[in-house]
Amino acid sequence: MPSKDERREALKAVFHEARGCVKCPQLAQTRHTVVFGAGNADADLMFVGEAPGRNEDEQGLPFVGQAGKLLETLLGEIGLTRDEVFITNTLKCRPPGNRDPHPVEIERCQAYLFRQIELVEPTVICTLGNFSTKLLRGDPTGITRLHGREEVRVVGPRAVRLYPLFHPAAALYTPANVEVLRRDFARIPELLALGAPEQPRRLVEEEPEPVIEEPALAAEPEPEPVAAAQLGLF
User: What does residue 231 show for φ and ψ, rounded to 5 degrees?
Assistant: First the structure.
């Protein structure tokens, strides 16, 4: 069972991998930066949105525009701050013109998200909007039917309390939905208080791979340190 520090270092390694990703050629060519995620690397509460917008692409951090301000306001109303949660997106790169993510892009990027969930070990994941809700549920049912209805789901190797919510950006276009989002938000502390659901057991213990000694190679240069503003981990 990896320690908190080990999980944090592993998360930094995933960040280094993601920021050089070229799995989606169009996104790799048009992005300004990879928006990996930000917040507490040991958070009980994780938010998963859709994809970075223009402000996020420029600053390298998720939810820094008007939707982010609404998210921070709603967090404050339940006694939390951004520093206490982890925020990320289904896609780590901004789609050109803020278009919807393509299915192939979601598929190529989902390994980064699942690895984040595995390493942060959240108790509750709030999916914001349709794209993250459909991905983490593995089901096409839309957010209008599902918002505010929690369920236990196994995402990758981890069981979590999945809680779909309207995306703050979409709610801003429909003022009535802001109040719906506020009411759904008010239940988050109750879900956190339930603690993590029972975790799935591994049926077969993994056999250790044989150690094969490789010939000595020339030392590679040390990777540049991760700037706190780039990764946004607290």
Answer: -90, -30
> Which domain CATH number covers 106?
3.40.470.10
Give the C-alpha separation, 54 to 136, whole Å.
25
Residue 8, domain extent: 4-193
What pLDDT shows up at residue 193?
98
Residue 223 in domain: no
130 phi and psi angles, rounded to 5 deg: -70, -45
CB atoms near residue 30 (< 10 Å): 14
Give residue-wise pLDDT tens across range 145-184. 999 999 999 998 899 999 999 999 999 998 899 999 999 9
Helices in the chain by DSSP H: which ranges?
4-18, 25-30, 54-59, 66-77, 103-120, 130-137, 143-146, 168-173, 175-185, 188-193, 228-231
Per the structure, the count of domains in the chain is: 1
How many CB atoms neighbour CB 221 within 10 A?
5
Please state, in angstroms and rounded to a whole number, the distance separating the CA atoms of residues 206 and 95.
Answer: 38
Question: 151 Cβ partners below 8 Å, 6+ apart?
Answer: 161, 162
**Is the model's pLDDT at 29 over the cut of 80?**
yes
Say if residues 168 and 181 touch (Cβ distance below 8 Å). Answer: yes
Residue 212 has pLDDT above 80, yes or no: no
Domain contains 94: yes
Question: Is 232 contained in some domain?
Answer: no
Is residue 203 a part of any domain in this protein?
A: no
